Amino acid sequence: MSIDVYKIIKRPIITEKTTKLREDNKYVFEVSLDSNKNDIKFAIEKMFNVDVESIRTNIVKGKLRRYGRYEGYRPDWKKAIVKLSKGQTIKLLEELK
Q1: Contacts of 34 (CB under 8 A, 6+ apart)
Q2: Which residue of 32, 52, 73, 79 shows the fewest CB atoms closer than 10 Å?
Q3: How far is the C-alpha of 47 from the C-alpha of 23, rounded, in Å?
Q4: Domain residue spans in the chain?
């Protein structure tokens, strides 16, 4: 498989809600719109050297934004909620608490 993992996983999503999900061993990432669950699982396992138990994906619709008299929509984006196997963590994200 010659997949560039950095094109699949764009960035982690760090909010109060996603920080609360870490207690259940779940991490949230922004991923590319055309990636599927198998691609996301491969990329997470390769980037962070962990075992992925399950993945849930969601396409977030872009919001309407106005700039003066002009209006437009922000782009749609996809997020993935990744549940890791028991006892595993992603060290980089745990340091951001």
Answers
A1: none
A2: 73
A3: 21
A4: 5-94
pLDDT digits (tens, 9 = 90+) for 33-74: 999 999 999 999 999 999 999 999 999 999 999 999 999 999
CA gap 16, 47 in Å, rounded: 24
Supply the CATH classification number for the domain 5-94. Answer: 3.30.70.330
Three-state helix/strand/coil letters over the chain: CCCCHHHHEEEECCCHHHHHHHHHCEEEEEECCCCCHHHHHHHHHHHHCCCEEEEEEEEECCCEEEECCEEEECCCEEEEEEEECCCCCCHHHHCCC
